[in-house]
Amino acid sequence: MKTRFKANAAAVAAVLVMLTTAIGTAHASTDSVQGSFATQARSARLTSAQVQKLQGEVNAYVAKSGGKQVSLNKVKFKGGSMLFVVPGEKYARDLGAQSSQVASTYNCKYGHFCAYSKTWYAGSVKDVSACGTNYYISFTGPGSWKNNQTTGLRAQFLDKYFNWIDSTPNAYSADPNGNWTPVYYVNPC
Q1: pLDDT at 37
Q2: Which regions in the chain score pLDDT beneath 70?
Q3: Domain limits at 21?
Q4: Pair (159, 120) in one structural domain
Q5: Helices 2-35 and 48-65: crossing angle, nearest 10°?
Q6: Could you give the CA distance from residue 82 to residue 136 in angstroms, rounded to a whole number?
Q7: 43 inside domain
Q8: How far apart are CA 19 and CA 114, in angstroms?
């Protein structure tokens, strides 16, 4: 009986050591990811809750869509980027940019298509430019978009089966009150 008790106690102790190590490792990796962008968070005077929310959104996006986190609230991928709005702010701004002042709206550069998570060009922004590529749109509900591709190009909206839903008018065009719910992908041109 004593031998069996000692064996069970040893097994329990081994499991506790493994769990402690695993939890410590997971915690350390989260800290190192956030730590690399700590200067951006401090410069923007973000609370720990805002930082955790942003990092959670970035982690979820990267897990589903891929890409590489390049600033506290920005993920880059081939042909574009995803910029997450800072919690409590209306418009997206890149916390990794030289000047990261609170923005009035995200500037959709010439040659790009920009999808905004909220109406009137507010919220998080997916900025894409590679023609012939179907980019996943994670937004649902009311939103907006700007088609600032080269003159005459039209972006295509596709459903989850890649069936055509609609096209934008020729560039330059925009819609401050769109609906992302049926849209799963955008092909910018």
Answers
A1: 82
A2: 1-36, 98-103
A3: 1-35
A4: yes
A5: 100
A6: 11
A7: no
A8: 44
Q: Do 16 and 97 belong together in one domain?
A: no
Q: What is the pTM of this model?
A: 0.78
pLDDT at 84: 95
The predicted-structure confidence for 109-135, as pLDDT tens digits, reads as follows 999 999 999 999 999 999 999 999 999
d(CA 67, CA 79): 10
CA atoms within 13 A on the CB side of 26: 6
70 touches 121 (CB < 8 A): no
42 part of a folded domain: no
DSSP code per residue over the chain: -HHHHHHHHHHHHHHHHHHHHHHHHHHHHHHHHHHTTHHHHHHTT--HHHHHHHHHHHHHHHHHH--EEEETTEEEETTEEEEPPPTT-SB---TTSS--PPPSS----TTEEEEEEEGGGEEEEEEE--TT--EE----SEEEEEEESSTT---EEE-TT--EEEEPPSSSEEEEEEE-TT--EEE--
Q: How far apart are CA 126 and CA 80, in angstroms?
A: 7
Q: Same domain for 97 and 163?
A: yes
